TrEMBL record:
Xref: Pfam families: Abhydrolase_6
Name of the featured protein: Alpha/beta fold hydrolase
SUPFAM superfamilies, sorted: alpha/beta-Hydrolases
Source species, domain of life: Bacteria
Organism of origin: Plastorhodobacter daqingensis
Length: 236
């Protein structure tokens, strides 16, 4: 039996894994999801949220070693968690997520990509601490192939603290000791699919796979996603 810990991306919360958790559990595995600080039901003020606080929240949710899955921006905090405590993570799984480059912040990486499809939907707060996604554009950016999830998701999207995404990250041998896998989404309209290919350049072919979905495979193809995660957990 594997243990999964699922980490959401920008503006989301543990709620986005609604359809995947029961499928992993039905397959005989333990699966949980958490709200990162200032997301979902977590009350942490946005002004206090840092990238390290994200990583510490992840580690605080781990008892036995887990398969740690990070969606989108969560590629950064799951990587830092692996650097801080590699012995607590069996495998890292990047789900259409940013794979950190040393010395770069997530915002740096977004700007370095071939395009920034999400940029036109971002609305910064007046105090500069957070951004939101324009609700009129959220379906087109996140959920274009899973319209059934829009009434559930839109009211739950929350402000995204900016500081964690503006924080450069440097990873070392501890992080490198943890096995990594990547699931690319080939119809992603948030992180360009060709950039996902670039971020996984040189990875062993058996650690990278594709899903023909939007940026939200947890709603668009939850059964396929759960099956992929199980195969990764049960593989070498």
């Amino acid at each position: 039996m594997a243990q999964f810990l699922l980490i959401h991306g920008s503006c989301h919360g543990a709620w986005c894994w609604r359809d995947v958790l029961p499928l992993l559990q039905a397959a005989g595995h333990e699966a949980r999801a958490i709200d990162l600080p200032s997301h979902g039901a977590d009350p942490t003020p946005a002004a206090k949220v840092t990238l390290e606080l994200y990583a510490r929240a992840i580690l605080g949710a781990i008892t036995d070693p887990v398969v740690l899955v990070g969606h989108s921006m969560a590629g950064y905090p799951i990587s830092l968690a692996a650097e801080l405590a590699p012995q607590r993570i069996d495998k890292l799984v990047y789900l259409c997520a940013y794979v950190p480059r040393n010395g770069m912040s997530l915002a740096d990486m977004r700007r370095a990509g071939p395009s920034q499809p999400l940029l036109e939907a971002i609305r910064r707060s007046d105090d500069g601490l957070t951004f939101r996604i324009d609700p009129r554009m959220a379906e087109a950016k996140f959920y274009h192939d899973c319209a059934h999830a829009v009434p559930y998701a839109l009211p739950r999207l929350c402000p995204q603290p900016i500081l964690p995404q503006d924080t450069p990250l440097t990873l070392g041998a501890a992080y490198a000791s943890v096995p990594r896998h990547y699931i690319r989404c080939t119809d992603d309209r948030t992180i360009p699919p060709d950039y996902q290919v670039t971020m996984t350049h040189g990875w062993p072919s058996d650690t990278v796979s594709d899903m023909e979905t939007s940026h939200s495979p947890f709603f668009a193809a939850p059964a396929e996603l759960a099956a992929r995660l199980v195969r990764i957990a049960e593989g070498p």
